[in-house]
Amino acid sequence: MSRSINLAVIPGDGIGQEVVAQGLKVLSAVLPEDVKLETKEYDLGATRWHRTGETLPDAELEALRHHDAILLGAIGDPSVPSGVLERGLLLKLRFAFDHYVNLRPSKLFPSTATPLAGRPDIDFVVVREGTEGPYTGNGGSLRTGTPAEVATEVSVNTAYGVERVVRDAYGRANSRPRKKLTLVHKNNVLVYAGHMWKNIFDKVGQEYPEVTTDYLHVDAATIFFVTQPERFDVIVTDNLFGDILTDLAAAVTGGIGLAASGNINPTGEFPSMFEPVHGSAPDIAGQGKADPTATILSVALLLRHLGYETEAARIEDAVAADLAERDGSTTRTTDETGDALAVRVAG
Ligand SMILES: NC(=O)c1ccc[n+]([C@@H]2O[C@H](COP(=O)([O-])OP(=O)(O)OC[C@H]3O[C@@H](n4cnc5c(N)ncnc54)[C@H](O)[C@@H]3O)[C@@H](O)[C@H]2O)c1
Ligand SMILES: CC(C)[C@H](C(=O)O)[C@@H](O)C(=O)O
Ligand SMILES: [Mg+2]
């Protein structure tokens, strides 16, 4: 039976363009010959906005919906007012395609540099809620720009939205050897949302007697990410806490250039979207300095999501082997890292 992948590609802004090219290079190299890869690139991001004023028109949203998956580089540019592309393009996609599981694995590969002493064994996954919290845009400003301005940004948490992501996290914890799930929130202060999260977490936990659970306030969690990251297996948390924690997780596992993510629509009704955790990095864009590994590992998540487990594992093994041989004293270009990984996965 012939197989095919119909992939939407949104390179986006800054280093997004550079790293996506390497992700596609490795994807083409890893796929067996009987898998037909079709890609369609979407011109979305800062350049498009400057040209037409559009972020994500309905026609493109509709077209994107019919792909098997989406590979995205990064969105955001200093020439565009902050939030225009982030909300109008990236978050619009996550919301429209109901990406309620924002999956962000963190693994410290052997020999990768970490700022942590003692080289702890880090291998956890953050299940970040992807469609609610303070990200919904439920806010406003009164008397804008005056000394009497009032601004709100309301965190929206629905029992439906919390339960489905918590359930997903329990399922993931249950399928991992350590079977441990940590809820991170701030229910000592956010007593409405925090208590709802905790109540739902405890309720769903009764269906998973083999999963060990614990709870941490988000501020304490940042301590343990640095002092005891090995204590974590699966973490479930809200949209904003998950955003912040996963940049920290990247920093302790070799840097933001290695951190991959998947915006998953578990029901399969909409395409899931895979992207590095990092942004468009305007400070290094166009210099060939960006590490494409995060995007390449995101391609591995994409392949696993579509059922190509062998190919996903080949990419992860290639990254592990490549990291073991990377010489910290010489810096490779974005293209050279992509080439090296493409050769490894093909070989
Ligand atoms: N998913 C996304 O598209 C996404 C994610 C985060 C930020 N952003 C946007 O990106 C823009 C820049 O944001 P920021 O500076 O806060 O975060 P950033 O992740 O772009 O950059 C933070 C730091 O990490 C470095 N860095 C990032 N990716 C790297 C890579 N692959 N290799 C080497 N170094 C890398 C950058 O050079 C910078 O010093 C903003 O417009 C922001 O909104 C988009
Ligand atoms: C750019 C921004 C909207 C985005 C987020 O906050 O989710 C980014 O920081 C990320 O981590 O993917
Ligand atoms: Mg972020």
TrEMBL record:
Subcellular location: Cytoplasm
The entry's keywords: Amino-acid biosynthesis, Branched-chain amino acid biosynthesis, Cytoplasm, Leucine biosynthesis, Magnesium, Manganese, Metal-binding, NAD, Oxidoreductase
Keyword Iron: no
EC number: 1.1.1.85
GO molecular function: 3-isopropylmalate dehydrogenase activity
Domain Isopropylmalate dehydrogenase-like: 6-341
Chain positions recorded as substrate binding sites: R94, R104, R128, D219
InterPro entries reported in the protein's UniProt record: ICDH/IPMDH (IPR050501), IsoCit/isopropylmalate_DH_CS (IPR019818), IsoPropMal-DH-like_dom (IPR024084), LeuB_actb (IPR023698)
Feature type site, description Important for catalysis: Y135, K186
Pathway per the UniProt entry: Amino-acid biosynthesis; L-leucine biosynthesis; L-leucine from 3-methyl-2-oxobutanoate: step 3/4
Cofactor names: Mg(2+); Mn(2+)
Enzyme type, top EC level: oxidoreductase
Main location: cytoplasm
Keyword Metal-binding found: yes
Pfam families found in the cross-reference section: Iso_dh
Binding site for NAD(+): G279, S280, A281, P282, D283, I284, A285, G286, Q287, G288, K289, A290, D291
NCBIfam families: PRK03437.1 (NF002898)
Protein name per the record: 3-isopropylmalate dehydrogenase
Source organism phylogeny: Bacteria, Bacillati, Actinomycetota, Actinomycetes, Kitasatosporales
